[in-house]
């Protein structure tokens, strides 16, 4: 294998076809992708704890297995065992749900000293218990170790996943040039990856201390890749021309502002004036508009599009999801029609002759506003006079995707990016160069009130609160976490979308309330139909997974209940909260959880400021989260740069040297996607 070469899994010959197909569904295509499918957590079972230290910990305890039983409950096998804990003499009730194959071992270990590894809980009525232990052993055979726990992948057993990962680790090579590797004195790449999957130490040190050198090596790789990709991309950017399209007429844009049902905020007004001033002066607009969900970024984008249209230019608004694109399209139509401009939605729903006609009309300039997802930069789409490119939620698109759209335009196209993910000035300079203007919208639209947030665990209290909102004519979202394949629901006490739907139907439908359901597994047409019914208030309660996180705008919805809120990341909780508070009504976010003092939930109660949320999110997540698979794309790299500015400044020097010496291919090959582009940083 060449130095740093990243093979496709099918070429490596270490995985069967069934496993390969399952991995591809998780966007795992290469040897390095799978080698870097890191554990989501580690369980430290190196030491047996006395019961007095074990409560609320995932740990190893020891005792005498006194009794056991096997029974059927609601069609599921439940195995129970009572273990007399050695240090206290207390009974620990151990239960296995839906794991009938465990019974023979439990029976075999009866009347012997055993070690149970799992989460120890205490209840004032039921006493000490461990549900679905991670493992259990005869004390005489127990060898304490650190156990990595992986997010499950459908159709792949834990053993198969671990074996496949180990095979891939054997194939990876050192991607850094020898000069850089020797200077930095980092852990070698293969050892670092192996350590993150197989943490081990003879010394009595914490798991984090074992992982730290390996994590730092992975972070160095990823920040270096990000830096190289940006520098290579910037060196090829042909859109830095100062020449651009000048506007003369501004009447329609003023008419648009008068149509708005609200007065612009101070920040919105400043942004609009800046765009207007630059376009009138013939200066290129290259702007990043950032602000919290619901702060009014789209209004600024619409103004810029109308300015271009009344001066003879087309504008494209690219959104990451069909739902968000459709929302922009409908809102833009409501203004464009009155101003005499035509709007079209380019989506995958367009087929055959209809698609060809729309694309032909766009190329002839019959549409001034073009809204869509990836279709807007497809090979078959061309524009007559494209003067403005707007990207919503721009961090969700890769460099190559943004470039593909910009290349549809002439040199000097105006560019506006919108983001609800706060980006510090220093990082904006890194991502876009110092030419990019950074505009921050902090003030909420007039009449909007901050969303009130509270943690609650009581179904009855939540039902009562939702009922009060419905009685006032308002609507509600109920969000459930996705339950992973084979996850023990009994352990985490999670309610599925189906269970939640039944609960809310039984409670509210007798009073004439309509309940709808949306999930990512539904047919797209069915999901859009349900969302439309919710927007039109034909449905009052919408039960969903996180598919409503982006692009659902219902000002009449004033309460969002997030079930098992402790299962969500801080940034995602904040994004979900942004679904309410979009009208002039007081709005509420209820975080349903038994974990009252969870750090993320406490932060959500304390602040609604997206910038503070972003800082806290970064602070609360460990380095392992930043290098793992839980988040991907630009967000991961951006977070690393924000968290480690000194490391970034150091790595810049290596990146420049590697480009000058043409020695960057190893690190680029390691992280580039299957479709393969040196510039693809997503």
TrEMBL record:
Keywords: ATP-binding, DNA damage, DNA repair, DNA-binding, Helicase, Hydrolase, Nucleotide-binding. InterPro entries: DEAD/DEAH_box_helicase_dom, Helicase_ATP-bd, Helicase_C-like, NA-bd_OB-fold, P-loop_NTPase, RecG/Mfd, RecG_dom3_C, RecG_wedge. SUPFAM superfamilies: Nucleic acid-binding proteins, P-loop containing nucleoside triphosphate hydrolases. Residues 461-619 form the Helicase C-terminal domain. Residues 278-440 form the Helicase ATP-binding domain. It holds the Pfam family Helicase_C. One of its GO terms (molecular function) is DNA binding. One of its GO terms (biological process) is DNA repair. This is Probable DNA 3'-5' helicase RecG. It comes from Roseburia intestinalis.
């Amino acid at each position: 294998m060449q130095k740093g070469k990243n093979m496709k899994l099918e070429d490596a010959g270490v995985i069967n076809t069934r496993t390969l197909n399952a991995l591809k569904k998780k966007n795992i295509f290469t040897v390095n992708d799978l080698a870097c499918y890191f554990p989501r957590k580690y369980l430290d079972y190196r030491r047996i704890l006395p019961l007095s230290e074990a409560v609320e910990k995932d740990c190893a305890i020891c005792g005498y297995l006194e009794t056991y039983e096997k029974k059927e409950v609601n069609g599921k096998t439940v195995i129970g065992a009572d273990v007399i804990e050695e240090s206290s003499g207390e009974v620990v009730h151990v239960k296995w749900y839906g794991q009938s194959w465990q019974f023979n071992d439990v029976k075999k270990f009866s009347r012997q000293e055993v070690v149970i590894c799992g989460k120890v809980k205490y209840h004032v009525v039921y006493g000490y218990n461990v549900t679905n232990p991670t493992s259990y052993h005869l004390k005489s055979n127990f060898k304490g170790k650190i156990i990595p726990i992986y997010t499950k992948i459908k159709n792949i057993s834990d053993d198969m996943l671990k074996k496949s990962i180990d095979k891939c680790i054997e194939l990876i090579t050192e991607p850094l040039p020898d000069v850089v590797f020797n200077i930095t004195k980092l852990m070698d790449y293969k050892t670092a990856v192996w350590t993150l999957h197989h943490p081990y130490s003879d010394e009595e040190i914490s798991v984090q201390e074992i992982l730290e050198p390996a994590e730092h090596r992975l972070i160095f790789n990823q920040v270096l890749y990000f830096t190289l990709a940006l520098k290579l991309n910037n060196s090829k950017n042909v859109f830095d021309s100062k020449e651009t399209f000048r506007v003369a007429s501004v009447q329609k844009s003023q008419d648009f502002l008068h149509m708005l049902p609200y007065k612009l905020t101070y920040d919105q007004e400043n942004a609009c004036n800046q765009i207007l001033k630059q376009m009138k002066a013939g200066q290129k607009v290259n702007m990043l508009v950032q602000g919290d969900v619901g702060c009014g970024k789209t209004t600024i984008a619409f103004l810029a599009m109308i300015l271009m249209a009344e001066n003879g230019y087309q504008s494209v608004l690219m959104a990451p999801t069909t739902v968000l694109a459709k929302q922009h399209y409908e809102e833009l139509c409501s203004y464009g029609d009155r101003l005499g401009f035509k709007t079209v939605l380019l989506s995958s729903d367009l087929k055959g002759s209809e698609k060809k006609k729309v694309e032909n009309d766009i190329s002839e300039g019959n549409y001034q506003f073009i809204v869509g997802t990836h279709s807007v930069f497809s090979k078959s789409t061309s524009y007559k006079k494209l003067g403005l490119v707007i990207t919503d939620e721009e961090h969700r698109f890769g460099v190559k995707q943004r470039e593909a759209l910009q290349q549809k335009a002439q040199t000097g196209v105006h560019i506006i990016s919108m983001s609800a993910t706060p980006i510090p000035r220093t990082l904006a300079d890194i991502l876009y160069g110092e030419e990019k203007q950074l505009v921050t919208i902090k003030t909420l639209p007039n009449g909007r009130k901050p969303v009130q947030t509270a943690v609650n665990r009581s179904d009855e209290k939540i039902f009562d609160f939702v009922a009060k909102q419905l009685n006032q004519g308002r609507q509600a979202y109920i969000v459930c976490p996705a339950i992973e394949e084979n996850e023990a629901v009994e352990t985490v006490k999670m309610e599925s979308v189906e269970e939640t739907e039944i609960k809310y139907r039984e409670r509210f439908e007798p009073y004439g309330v309509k309940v709808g359901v949306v999930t990512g597994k539904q047919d797209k047409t069915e999901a859009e139909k349900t969302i439309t019914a919710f927007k039109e208030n034909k449905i009052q309660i919408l039960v969903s997974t996180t598919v409503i996180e982006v692009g659902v705008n219902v000002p009449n919805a004033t309460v969002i209940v997030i079930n098992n809120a402790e299962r969500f990341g801080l940034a995602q909780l904040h994004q979900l909260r942004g679904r309410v508070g979009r009208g002039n009504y007081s709005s509420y976010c209820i975080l349903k959880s038994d974990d009252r003092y969870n750090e993320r939930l406490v932060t959500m109660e304390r602040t609604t400021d997206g910038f503070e949320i972003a800082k806290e999110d970064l602070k609360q997540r460990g380095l392992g989260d930043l290098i793992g698979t839980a988040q991907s794309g630009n967000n991961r790299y951006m977070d690393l740069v924000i968290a480690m500015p000194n490391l970034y400044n150091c790595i810049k020097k290596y990146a420049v040297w590697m480009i000058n010496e043409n020695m960057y291919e190893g690190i680029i090959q390691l992280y580039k996607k299957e479709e393969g582009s040196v510039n693809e940083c997503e």
